């Protein structure tokens, strides 16, 4: 599969996941593996930096605007694993939907009250869901609230 990104033709080998770019218009294609020391790899295309997961999503969805970095155009890793850039793991969502997919369990033990507290974060606010004697009840309260507030 291939797509033009920032004026350069970029190819994705579906079998290996490698990304190729033409080297200085010579007809020679080179693998660009990406770089970075965190979870999210980056790569340069015509002197512009892109996240690798956005490049892979663009190659698979040529009509998608990779340069639109608005809050309505995020790419989410469905399984919450940033190093898994398989197209099956990537989806286009809003920034808020992307935040909902963070690895937070939504409840914790409050030592001072000796209770489990459940809460959920949405629209920039924490919503208190209750205090519970049992961890399972706090977890259930969070999971029910997630169905209401974190619709993806």
Descriptors:
152 residues; alpha+beta; Homing Intron 3 (I-Ppo) Encoded Endonuclease, Chain A; 2 domains; 4-stranded antiparallel beta sheet; 3-stranded antiparallel beta sheet; 3 helices; 11 strands; elongated
Mean pLDDT: 86
Taken as a percent bin, the fraction of beta residues is 25-35%
Q: Would you tell me which CATH topology of the largest domain applies?
A: Homing Intron 3 (I-Ppo) Encoded Endonuclease, Chain A
Tally of individual helices: 3
Estimate the helix proportion, in percent: 10-25%
Distance between the termini: 28 Å
- Count of strand segments: 11
User: CATH architecture of the largest domain, please?
Assistant: Alpha-Beta Complex
| Main β sheet profile | 4 strands, antiparallel
H/E series? EEEEEEHEEHEEEH
What structural category characterises the helix and strand content? alpha+beta
Radius of gyration: 20 Å
| CATH classification, class level of the largest domain | Alpha Beta
Shape assignment: elongated
Unreliable stretches, pLDDT < 50, 5 or more residues? none
How many discrete domains? 2
Strand order of the largest sheet: 1-2-3-4
Task: Give a nutshell description of this structure.
By secondary structure, this protein is α+β, with helices and mostly antiparallel strands. It folds into two domains: 99 residues, Alpha-Beta Complex (Homing Intron 3 (I-Ppo) Encoded Endonuclease, Chain A), CATH 3.90.75; 43 residues, no CATH class.
Report on the structure:
Helix content is 20%, strand content 34%. The chain is α+β, with helices and mostly antiparallel strands and 152 residues long. The protein has 2 domains: 2-100, Alpha-Beta Complex (Homing Intron 3 (I-Ppo) Encoded Endonuclease, Chain A), CATH 3.90.75; 107-149, no CATH class. The strands form 4 sheets. It has a 4-stranded antiparallel beta sheet, covered by helices on one side. Strands 9-10-11 form a 3-stranded antiparallel beta sheet, covered by helices on one side. Strands 5-6 form a two-stranded antiparallel ribbon. A hairpin with a 6-residue loop joins strand 2 (8-12) and strand 3 (19-22). The mean pLDDT is 86.
